[in-house]
Amino acid sequence: MRFIFYALWFVLMSLTAYAKTEVYFSPSKDCENRIVRAINDSKKEVVAAVYSINNPRIVEALINAQKRGVKVQVLTDRVQASQKNSGVLALKTAGINLKVHSKFKIEHNKFGVYDGALISTGSFNWTRPAADSNSENCLFLDEKEITYKYRSHFNHLWTLNSEEKSLAYIRKLASKHLR
Could you tell me which residues are beta bridge partners of residue 23? Predict the structure, then answer.
């Protein structure tokens, strides 16, 4: 009987050891720091669907990942992309494969998938105010099934949103900022 107990305990501990969940809250640098670390640790791919992106450290981490040869794709909200402090033009100028949404009213997701093995999600916008002054949260999960679902959903969103409309919007945005 003791053997069965220890065998079951070992199996349960082994299964839970592989699934790790991290939770952070803002205002604080915890979510920002963990997202930057996830991007910096990525070796192959970072994909993100985010409502707003203007956090300089996150933008810089994405650009540096691209320079390291990591495949980076970002889908973001078109209205938020037009905001004064948006990082969209910096990302696009750096060669990041970026789309602004053209399908739904708003692109309100806030998730990233890192090397297909880790996801970040929650209310945390990838912005400076989210880290410095807003009450937000972020959750990091490395459960394979959940990560697969987020990566698949990103693929779905990426396909739904037109490359042509996105490029036209970014050109318009760039000309507006040149004035």
Answer: 139
Domain assignment present for residue 9? The answer is no
Joined together, the tokens standing for residue 27 give 């205002």
Total domains, the chain: 1
CB atoms within 10 A of CB 18: 9
Quote the domain boundaries for residue 157: 26-178
Q: What CATH number is associated with residue 67?
A: 3.30.870.10
Mean pLDDT by 10 residues, the chain (179 residues): 56 58 97 98 98 98 98 96 92 96 93 98 97 97 96 97 91 80
Q: Is residue 6 part of a domain?
A: no
CA–CA dist 151, 48 (Å, integer): 9
76, part of any domain: yes
Tokens in use for 171? 């050109």
Q: What one-character DSSP code corresponds to residue 86? A: -
How many whole angstroms separate alpha carbon 147 and alpha carbon 162? 24
Query: Taking a C-beta distance cutoff of 8 angstroms, is the pair 88, 173 a contact?
Result: yes
Model's pTM, two decimal places? 0.88
Whether residue 14 is contained in a domain is answered as: no
User: CB atoms < 10 A from the CB of 81, how many?
Assistant: 25
